[in-house]
Amino acid sequence: MTHPQSRPGHGPFRADQLQDGDRYELTDGHPRYCAPARADHAGPNATGAAIVDSDPDVQWTGVDAGFSPDPGTLRAPDVSVASPPADGQGGWLPDAPLLALEYAGRGQNESDLRSKIAELLGHGTRLVWVVRLVGPRRVEVHAPGQPMQTLGVGEELKAPGILRNPVPVAALFDRAAAQEIVLRNLLQRRGYADLDAIREEGRTETQRQTALNLLRLTGLDDLAIAAATGLDAESVAALRRESGGDAGPRPG
Fold this sequence. Notes:
By secondary structure, the chain is an alpha+beta fold. Helix content is 34%, strand content 17%. The chain has six helices and eleven strands.
């Protein structure tokens, strides 16, 4: 949450005069005080960061990261997705984020929020999601040259070219729902579509091991082993070949 100061023309401050940890943003050279987050703001903020950071296509996520696309501007979205900074890069990030999330709770200064959205979009941000913490659960979607859209629980947010997976609106409010999305995303980073894919892999491996044991220890034919394990007969025949046995059916 930010609180505006008076704005008579261009202000005297530059982003390079602010240090990491200063509770100010800059707009047109004027300071904007950023108050600490209340519990009802801080929790969802962390949840949103976990969701977007885990997306398989995201390489860098920041929380309160400072972006300074020009000397008089310094904006720090609650959560941002951006291109990875150069190795060893210090100071503020020079470009606007690709995606910015702002959590608007009690006491939100709406005028400054509108300014912040306009500045981010004007400097190249593709999407700004405003998560409304007061009133009905909803997210406002802002994009350059497009009218604002409002999505509610039961709908999904999409960020083509930024996030691989859609984000259910409910997950930005509900920690349990968010954890399911994070788990899916992390599994996809490891090559699994979802948790069911891991379960299926475990079942298949168990079936294979059972079939191999039956091939080694019994005289059952391929059809009987297939019926016992749930594998198809062709898979059993392939296992027989791999194990060095006869590829054809064996009588019981």
